[in-house]
Design brief:
The protein is α/β, with parallel strands linked by helices. The strands form two sheets. Strands 1, 2, 3, 4, 8, 9, 10 and 11 form an eight-stranded mixed sheet that branches. It has helices spanning about 5-25, 40-45, 65-75, 90-95, 115-125, 135-145, 160-165, 215-220, 235, 275-280, 285-300, 305-310, 310-315; strands at about 50-55, 80-85, 100-105, 130, 150-155, 170, 180-185, 190-200, 205, 220-230, 250-255. Strand 3 (about 100-105), helix 5 and strand 4 form a beta-alpha-beta unit. The protein folds into two domains: about 40-150 and about 190-315, Glutaconate Coenzyme A-transferase; about 150-185, no CATH class. About 40% of the residues are buried. It starts with a helix and ends in a 16-residue tail after the last helix.
Length: about 325
């Protein structure tokens, strides 16, 4: 059709095509299932006894403490924890008796060093530990995301990681004959990640230090997103390059403001140093840890109750005072 009507129709089709491609690139098609649920329901449905869970994938920021605390509250057992530097969340889950195995680069208290529950569990042979470096756990998850059984690397050669990690083997390069390390794939049953914002379908924006979050999301069979904000899908599609993982990979979305506390959340709140310092004392013995758990796990009913317990004044003291916005971009066509 020629003339104004035909031109108008072509313009309409062009806009629809661009919109379709924009939605497709962030995993929004087909949009069929709202995945928004409570924290209790998400953990109950997707975290089962004996499963493997990737946590703390951004190292020292955005650690999903609220989700970890709900795992403790529900008394999950026999879990394998996977991560780089997961800070005191791994120590707390171990102290609660939820863990049988750890695949990690480091477990402890990032401010004070030692994780007392972790140390006791290792000394008493109550958990198995598979030692990694930050790079080997990253490559193991990348292999899982790629669907291959291992990835080769030069990392870890000459270290004693091979003695403590059955997922590392020496191999010869088939092309050069040079020695490499083969790093076995890790495919977690579930990855739990905390993000700045998500829509109800699991399309999320995350920024700051991403660590190995994308590798964990793409390698895992399921992903639970906990988010500071739930936003309209249109906000997500306006910046598709910032999307963490395609929405179809996400099994549950939980609205969890302050869900990373006491770790920092870029753009939302700072690290609560006092909590980490206090936890050193509160976890020094099993008896002290039991008191901590009664106060901060058993007596807390939800993430919203947790924020109320912290109090408005304390939360305000952690608020961002210096804003540093990113440069805007143009997705025009």
């Amino acid at each position: 059709m020629n003339g104004p009507a035909g031109a108008s129709r072509r313009d309409c089709h062009n806009r629809l095509d661009v919109r379709f491609l924009s939605h497709l690139c962030v995993g929004l098609l087909p949009v069929t299932t709202l995945k928004l649920m409570s924290m209790a329901d998400a953990i109950s449905q997707w975290i089962t006894d004996g499963c493997s869970v990737a946590l703390g994938t951004t190292l020292e920021t955005a650690i999903p403490f609220a989700a970890g605390h709900e795992i403790m509250r529900q008394g999950k057992q026999g879990l394998t924890l996977i991560g780089p530097i997961s800070d005191i969340l791994f120590d707390q889950l171990i102290g609660a008796g939820c863990v049988s195995r750890v695949q990690a680069a480091w477990v402890g208290n990032v401010i004070t060093g030692v994780g007392y529950n972790f140390r006791r569990a290792v000394e008493q042979h109550r958990i198995d530990v598979e030692d990694h470096s930050n790079l080997t756990v990253s490559l193991a998850l990348q292999a899982g995301a790629m669907g291959v059984s291992f990835l080769p690397s030069r990392t870890a050669l000459g270290s004693d990681l091979f003695a403590a990690n059955p997922g590392l083997k020496h191999i010869a390069c088939p092309f050069t004959g040079q020695k490499h390390a083969a790093i076995a794939a890790i495919v977690p049953d579930v990855a739990i990640v905390h993000v700045q914002r998500s829509d109800s379908f699991g399309n999320a924006h995350a920024w700051g230090n991403m660590g190995i979050t994308r590798e964990a999301c793409m390698a895992s069979r399921r992903v639970i997103l906990t988010a500071e904000e739930i936003v309209p899908t249109e906000l997500i599609t306006r910046d598709p390059n910032r999307v963490l993982a395609p929405g179809f990979k996400i099994s549950a979305v939980v609205h969890a403001p302050w869900g990373a506390h006491p770790s920092p959340m870029p753009g939302y709140y700072n690290r609560d140093h006092k909590v980490f310092l206090d936890y050193r004392t509160q976890s020094r013995t099993p008896e002290l840890f039991a008191l901590w758990m009664n106060q901060w796990i058993n007596a807390i009913s939800s993430i919203h109750h947790y924020a109320e317990t912290l109090g408005d004044a304390h939360l305000a003291s952690l608020s961002i005072t210096h804003h540093d916005y990113s440069e805007p971009v143009d997705y025009g066509y």
